[in-house]
Amino acid sequence: MTEYRAFKVELTDNIAHVQINRPEKLNAMNGDFWKEIIDIFQWIDDTDAVRVVVLSAAGQHFSAGIDLALLAQLAGQMGKDVGRNARLLRRTILGLQASFNAVDNCRKPVLAAIQGYCLGGAIDLVSACDMRYCSADAQFSIKEIDMGMAADVGTLQRLPRIIGDGVMREMAYTGRHVLAHEAQRIGLVNQMFDDQAALREGVFALAAQIAQKSPIAVSGTKEMLNYMRDHRIDDGLEYIATWNAAMLQSEDLRVAMAAHMSKQKPTFAD
C-alpha cells in the first residue's frame, strides 16, 4: 500500500478505508491532500478487490476545510495583471474541482463518516460521496460566504441534489452551523450515531453489506444513478438497456439466483 502524507489508506475485506490524517491541523486540506486524493481514488477505481469505500478522518473533527496556508501561497503568486491572475485562479479552481470529481466519478460507492467540524471544503467533499453519516457532535457549515466568496469546488452544484433548495440556500447565504440532528432531518446525512465509535461501527457494517453484493451490479447501479442526475428518464432507460445487454451476461447473475433459490449467501468474484 502506498504511503501518503495527508491520508492513511487500508484495504480489508473488500472495503477501502480512506482516512484524512492531519488531526493536528483539524484535517485542513493542504497541497498534499488535493494531489493525493486523486491518486487514491484512481487506485480504488482500478483495484477490483475494492468494492466499497469508507471515507473518514482522524481525530475529533472531520475537516475544517481548505488549509489557509494554501490560500496564502496562492495569493503570493498573484501579480498586477488581471488577465494572468484570472488565468491562474481559474486553473487552480479547476484543479481543486478535479480532486472531488475523482470521488464523485469513482465506480465504487463512497460512504462518508463525519464527526466534529465539517466546514467549507469539507462540505464539497462529502457532497461528492454517495452517502453521509455523522456522530452526534457533527457540525456542518458552508463557510465560504464568511470568507467573502462563493463556494467553488462542488457544494453549490451537488448539495442542491441532496437537500431541499430552501435549506440549501439558507446555508449558503448565511454560513450558519447545522448540527447533527438537523443534518439528519434535512437529509444531509442518512443517519446520526451517538458517538464516533458507534459511527465507525455503523458505517463499516453498512459498507460490509455492500461489499457482499455483486460488484458488477453495484457499479452498474451507481453508474445509472449518476447518469440520471443530468439526463431525462428516456435517456436513462435507453442507457440501462444497453448497459444490461452486456452486464446481464455476468456470472454474478447466475450465482445470485442460485443462492436465492437455495437460501444461501452468495459469494461473488472481484
Automatic annotation (TrEMBL):
Its main location: other. It comes from the Bacteria. GO terms for biological process: fatty acid metabolic process. SUPFAM superfamilies: ClpP/crotonase. The keyword Isomerase applies. The keyword Acetylation applies. One of its GO terms (molecular function) is isomerase activity. It is found in: Peroxisome. GO terms for cellular component: cytoplasm. CDD domains: crotonase-like. Pathway: Lipid metabolism; fatty acid beta-oxidation. InterPro entries: ClpP/crotonase-like_dom_sf, Ech1-like, Enoyl-CoA_hyd/isom_CS, Enoyl-CoA_hydra/iso, Enoyl-CoA_hydra_C. Keywords: Acetylation, Fatty acid metabolism, Isomerase, Lipid metabolism, Peroxisome. Gene3D superfamilies: 2-enoyl-CoA Hydratase, Chain A, domain 1, Lyase 2-enoyl-coa Hydratase, Chain A, domain 2. Belongs to the enoyl-CoA hydratase/isomerase family. This is Enoyl-CoA hydratase. It comes from Pseudomonas guariconensis. The lineage of its organism: Bacteria, Pseudomonadati, Pseudomonadota, Gammaproteobacteria, Pseudomonadales.
